[in-house]
Amino acid sequence: MSDICEVCGLPKELCVCEELVREQQKITIKLDRRRYGKMMTLIEGLNPNEVDLHSLVSKLKSACACGGTVKDGIIELQGDHRVKAKEILEKMGFRVESLE
Known about the structure:
CATH superfamily: SUI1-like domain
Oligomer: single chain
Radius of gyration: 15 Å
Number of domains: 1
Distance between the termini: 47 Å
Low-confidence stretches: none
Helix content: 25-40%
CATH architecture: 2-Layer Sandwich
CATH topology: Translation Initiation Factor Eif1
């Protein structure tokens, strides 16, 4: 028998918990100017307890062809990738509230 989800009680293949978690989060994408005029794209509002931020940042870095990291629950991407990051997150099922 397959594994059962602790939250919804459905088998892992039919579980919709992760999709619901993605839709309920309010994500904000900001642009920040750092030292020496370097631009950083900041993605805030993700709950690190419900979403694996390290795998998410890996997908974003490879799709945007840039460097990045996770600090204090905020994803930081090197460069201005607001539009591309929004498209990628929406394809993954997240709801992006605003681009600033």
